Amino acid sequence: MNENIFWVVTAKVKEGEIGNLKALISEMTESTKANEPGAINYEWFISSDEKFCHVYERYTNSETTVSHLKNFNKNYAKRFIGCLDVKSYTVYGKPSEEVVNMLSPLGVVFMEPAGGFIR
């Protein structure tokens, strides 16, 4: 069974924060790529008018997800919230109780697998 945990975050860029957001994206991407081998996908998208941001992240399992979330909370959460107003946060997969407990206070929607496949 696939143990991957992934999510999509949809956010509005706060007024005057696009430059700070782009710097944060660069820093977080470099850090995640260098220090988190369990991060399979780590992708950011900004609308052409620079008003909206989507984040797609995929981790090998709940353990690597917890590691990422702890690093994010320690090093980046305050700046992230300073740049973005999160509109939706949807998590896919079968996360551990620890992941659920870490993310539930954020109003996350959890979507469990119902069918399909990964090649």
Low-confidence stretches: none
Oligomerization:
single chain
Question: Beta-sheet strand percentage?
Answer: 25-35%
How many distinct beta strands? 5
Question: Which structural class matches the secondary elements?
Answer: alpha+beta
Report the average pLDDT across residues.
97
Which architecture per CATH? 2-Layer Sandwich
How would you sum up the global shape?
A: globular
In the CATH scheme, what's the topology name? Answer: Alpha-Beta Plaits
CA(first)-CA(last) distance: 13 Å
Order of secondary-structure elements: EHEEHHEHE
Strand order of the largest sheet: 2-3-1-4-5
* Total tally of structural domains: 1
User: In DSSP terms, counting alpha (H) and pi (I) runs of 4 or more, how many helices?
Assistant: 4
CATH class: Alpha Beta
Question: Helical content, roughly?
Answer: 25-40%
Rg of Cα set: 14 Å
Largest sheet: 5 strands, mixed
What does this structure look like?
With 119 residues, this protein is an alpha+beta fold. It has one domain: Alpha-Beta Plaits, CATH 3.30.70.100. It has a five-stranded mixed beta sheet with strand order 2-3-1-4-5. The model has no long low-confidence stretch (mean pLDDT 97).
Main features:
5 strands; single chain; Alpha-Beta Plaits; 119 residues; five-stranded mixed β-sheet; 39% helix; alpha+beta
What would you say about this model in short?
This protein has 119 residues and is of the alpha+beta class. Helices cover 39% and strands 31% of the residues. The protein contains four helices and five strands; from the N terminus they run βαββααβαβ.
